[in-house]
Specification:
The complex is a heterodimer. By secondary structure, chain A is of the alpha/beta class. Helix content of chain A is 34%, strand content 17%. In chain B, strand 3 and strand 4 form a beta hairpin. The chains are: A alpha/beta, B alpha+beta.
Chain lengths: 548, 254
Amino acid sequence: MTVIEGYPDYMLKSIKLCEEKREKNMAQPVKPMSMKAREEMLKKYHPDYMEGTKRELRVGKDKGMLLYNGIVDLLESKTVIDPKDIDLSKIDYDVDLLIIGGGGAGTVAALFAYESGVPKDRILIVTKLRHGDANSMMAQGGIQAADRPEDSPALHYLDIYGGGHFTNKPELARALALDAPGIINWHEQLGVMYDRHENGEFQELSGGGTCRNRMHSCKDYSGMEMMRNIRDQARNLEIPVLEFCPVAELIMDDKGQIVGGVAFNLETFEYYVIRAKATILATGGSGRLHLANYPTTNHYGATGDGLIMAYHAGANLLDLDTIQIHPTGDAYPEPLVGILSTEKIRGLGAIPLNKNGDPFVFPLEPRDVESAALIKECKEGRGIVTPTGMPGVWLDTPMIEIIHGEGTIETKLAGEVRKFKRFGIDMAKQPILVYPTLHYQNGGVEINEKTETILPGLFAAGEVTGGVHGKNRLMGNSLLDFNVFGRRAGIYAAKYIKKAKIGKLTLSHLDKFNKMLEQANIKPIKSAPIILPEYRGEMAISRALDIF
Amino acid sequence: MIKEGQVLMEKSKTSKAKDIKEKEGTVEVFIMGKSYKVPAGLTIMKALEYAGYRYIRGCGCRAGFCGACSTIYRKEDEQKLGFDLACQKVVEDKMYLVQLPFVPASKAEYDIDKIVPKESTIMEIYPEIARCVSCNTCTKSCPQDIEVMKYIQRAVRGDISKCAEISFDCIQCGLCAMRCPADIKHYHVSQLARRLRGKYLDTKSKNLASRLKEIENRKYDSEIEKIIKLNKNEIMDLYKNRKIEAEEEGKGGD
């Protein structure tokens, strides 16, 4: 049995080259690419532009739309619930506001719905795993907000829009930029511990594709610190949460409104009928679908359920022809493959280097461009290949200590240090090996600036939505997204509730959807949403009895 | 690209495990007492999945941030119990494993807007911290290697800031509270300390305050509106020609 301790010899040789060239590499940085060069890089090396990763959807509202295969597979599956099995005359939970998802967006929505006058007992958060189990908790780098005098919300807007290749919905990008400073202020009132200078000003770093330093951080536990505060606040207010009870399908009424959902208790195998005047979809992303066969940084529950159930009910989708692969997933050692190493590492000054110790890309290109550049370097043979065949390039972390002083890594990247230390790697002294990993669902269910979907009664916020980031999200904008649009969802849903009138409950949209599959001559092999990813060993599955 | 992606994916799944199995051999682990042979080099989490378990509880972010996969283990012929995260710890031969599905520790409810941070504040809300016998079991059971006992001692002494600082990396797995002979809920105590510090003790940003005022006065509305109304070429030019702060400094700012 081998316990991995540090790097093998051949990697150490390459690290030696990085060390020798470090001074020179720091003095002569690679310039950012021109727009044209960016475009060429993406076309040649980003999976969004590769043939065979996507196909046209054959059913439903967005029939003909080009989407990633893994998403089409699920959208062309039969509904996980058969309406025959559900008795809608027995309501288990009757509330004003159902929030599907207990991550960042859902919890923020609950807090602002409460603040907007919805009584706590009339709110119900249902979530697949525990309250707070979400990608929000894992975000490391930070949150963008233009609050320095050198910066402005207009510049932030420009970065968001340009980074998204000018495909974002302008009203959503504007909301993101303009609401940002208010969110930081709200966090201060909650008690979020941001990294600050002694005079109280925030320590703000640059992120890929941002023209100003505006990334606010809480060490490299930014999302965790936010989620801890938001969740603690919800617990103090005693907002009801149903854990391990994912909603599997939405309920409609005879007027075509969304009026709740059917939840499934993962431990007792019972379903619950939840009736609600308004429903907020905050189910997060879909990294665990492993689109384009990438490993992922995502949470265990990120299986895209919200997309699927909203589509069954007739919602429309945006920008799901793109995925965000984060440039710096871990490539070594093997147990860490796919896990994120935060963009903050580059924000602090570390530069990607190839096996010869040479730089090849401006370290802070937008994520898609940076990822493509890393893939190119490896494809052309200038990457390091690990003993298990995983390619990667160096991220020269010791540069951070030279730029900002000894001990910076330990204080600002505590989580990263802890992660690598387990495997005998001291990132303050040695570079780390990285390769792009599936990180974020850029698109999703289309919303407007009030977080309304096209279905009356259904609001959506966070990673499940589409339009905010267009075809590429910039770093620091996802933590911002769940706060900005979670807040708006809570406020606008509370308003909607005051006038809402629920009709007769129905699941006929599921029958209708299954019929459409039949008519399109699609023979689904599975049902969706899938709720949990499958990681059991092949042997274990092939010999299982299907008794649940 | 797909091909490349496929290779990557398989690495994190079973065929990769088979690879390692051939190269590195297998280890024997006891999952809640039952013996399974799994490839060496897997994390405890992947080892359980390899053995055929499908997680509902005990699995969260799979990257060391959420505290869902607290694991208690013992190695054969040893008496000592070990504590770690299943997603981070690599299996070792003859490990007895069990995961904690839930932590029943109580949390105080408080209105953060109405608390005045004083030396006695934490003690008033969590009086049981006075019962700490300094046995240090909490620290020894922390998978994050946080000096848990030390921050509780700071809380006892009323040093909110230091308690917040030392505890900052807490992932709230609850192992400390499950082991404490004095029934202290360390991770809830430190949550309170951090909120008090973030809200009341850290100096606030003046830049933020003035920016908020500007936004309230709608200073940027028309500027953004103007950008939105530009045609695609104009906005691309504006984007292309904007100055990049990080580039001018040659590094990320701070």
